[in-house]
## 1
Amino acid sequence: MAQAVRWTHPLSYLNSDGRRHPKENSLATATLALGVVSVVCAWWPGLHVPGTWVGIVGVLTGAWGQYISATTGERFVTIIGLGAAAVGFYINMMHGGFLT
């Protein structure tokens, strides 16, 4: 029988199995934040060095978060952040890379 899903907390989407996953949730949100920072740094070519480093850290964090994720919500947030970090990383590499 289908039942209505009730979310009482913003992180309840990440904990769809009813259990807490603090490490997995932290990695998912950190990956999303690193991806956003990397993409924002890609808008300004002068910020390519920190944007590149943040992007590569976001990709590595996202890969580890994807490896240990427990729910579909965590995987969704991790993949969005991982994609953003990768795009930001590549655009920042185009602007000059790690040490220019």
Note: Helices lie at 22-42, 48-68, 72-95.
## 2
Amino acid sequence: MSDMVESTALSALQKKDLLHRLARIEGQLRGVQKLIAQAATPSDCDAVAQQMAAARKALDRSFVQLLTSTMQTQSANARDLAEAQASASKLAAMLDKFA
């Protein structure tokens, strides 16, 4: 991992947590690749599908964690109510766009 930059979007602890989650997902995906390479029977395909679903769910949870962390950090760092509302509107738009 590269050095983390100071940020008003996410705290260092939030970044560390997200990066840890993504590293675990990366490991899951490597395992899926290995399962696919070694798949020989229909039941092997079931195992691949199960692992893919687990990785997808973990990635979805990471996405929610990203939004939640960003919301917490940006609202805590807002100078006033108007800035907090503007930040919430941006995050709502991001949620609508990507979720």
Note: The longest helix spans residues 42-77.
